[in-house]
């Protein structure tokens, strides 16, 4: 039965409709796969009862010919999405035990369309990290192994989602992307993931990190599965004031692989000293693949690329320090009261005990750059540079329809390799942060393996609301690359 | 910009995070490094540039001024570390 977990989401949906297997069988093999893979530490909570109940409902609907788009599809939900009655702790001790009395809009949309939830997926604490080493629930392990069988990080912050999809534990997963948290782990684990345009997916019920950047999106085996999941996840939500009231296209119908008449921009600033030649080689190969699919390749310039990362590390921590002010030990989560302590003592002790080092670091940076006397020099300056970065893209769209770039400056690295050097860790997102700052849709697709046999991803960035164009270019790369490699099971 | 341990303690207090002397020293070095790296933004000419506030143009919507939610006191308090008499309970604030 292990073959069922090898199917793509689209193949599972087809098999269910053709009665090749039942939703219950599908759910059961996935529950078993999750149990057998605990060594990866991808899940923080397992909810077999949830996915099995959804499977029963799906089988009943299928029997009546009333199946919904995701009926019987077993998914993993990143533990940043509030799930009604199921512990949601954002990878943090400060929220441990929190059971939301409500369901996030994105996960509710997936459940509405018939999906079942296998459990909650591990992540960097409050989605702050690029290696999934900062979770209070422990590190997530990449199913791919490095040289000498070394243990590798799955990327972050959606590391549990990436690891679970790559290890065939779930058909697909939700991720969130603030500066690269869907694309970078997708690249590190050889799967596909898309961050849609800011405002496409409702942020309601998603634990907030940096509100002007946070955006949910799907992570899945291939581009088609991403398109199917994205359609369910998107949609206008009056409960999120930044939700876009626009029609949701049929993303899957856009997957023709034909790029005739499309211009693909190659940004000359996306080359960095010290990145492996293999990344550049893969990038050039990707351009050839898109040319073969009919596209015209044009060189473009995004002059402020170099400043995207430092801009991000002002804006994201500033917003985080405001958002995380809510964790005060009063309304939810953990509380620590020193003997005889007053309310302020309680706040300080609670937050000191509840937040991990990276979260504290970012709250401190955010508090510092927003504090009296520094606001103009840091935050306002960053918002101005952000405007210039967005303008770079606007000017690029006069010359091209989508942009092709590497997703990451390296393949997955070894556990602990960058945990003592915050800036080295931040540099992981050097290619993904610019599109985040400009709110643009962007995806990563697996394009090949490096010399050590590890997956490398290519990134497609698109115009606002042109997820169809992004997915189709990703589909063209996927078809041309014929990426079939997968992590050999060791767990 | 170099940050010293005293500044770290001040910022930590603003952020309501307890921090001891030893951690303050470490954090001062880390923050100085990060802020030093961030300061390359000073190279960018931003004269006359309007700061960006919304990445995707969007108008804030109006809605009817009516109650849309409520009567869920139990749900609201269900996750409280301490709740008493239908309220959140905290250490004594007024002597």
Characterise the protein shown here:
- The complex is a heterodimer of chains A (491) and B (95).
- Chain A is α/β, with parallel strands linked by helices and 491 residues long.
- Chain A contains 16 helices and eleven strands.
- Chain A has helices at 3-6, 9-17, 23-36, 48-63, 105-112, 159-166, 183-189, 223-233, 277-292, 308-323, 343-354, 357-370, 376-396, 422-426, 433-437, 467-481, and strands spanning 43-46, 74-78, 116-121, 172-177, 192-195, 215-220, 263-267, 296-300, 402-406, 442-449, 455-462.
- Chain A has an eleven-stranded mixed sheet with strand order 1-3-2-4-6-5-10-11-9-7-8, sandwiched between helices.
- In chain A, strand 7, helix 9 and strand 8 form a beta-alpha-beta unit.
- With 95 residues, chain B is mostly helical.
- Chain B has helices spanning 5-14, 21-38, 73-77; strands spanning 83-84, 87-88.
- Chain B has a two-stranded antiparallel ribbon.
- In chain B, strand 1 and strand 2 (87-88) form a beta hairpin.
- Chain B is flat.
- Chains A and B meet through helix 10, helix 11, helix 12 and helix 13 of A and helix 1 and helix 2 of B.
Pick out its properties.
heterodimer; A: 491 residues; alpha/beta; 11-stranded mixed beta sheet; 11 strands; B: 95 residues; mainly alpha; two-stranded antiparallel ribbon; 3 helices; 2 strands; 35% helix; flat
Q: Briefly, what is this?
A:
With 491 residues, chain A is α/β, with parallel strands linked by helices. Chain A is built from 16 helices and 11 strands.
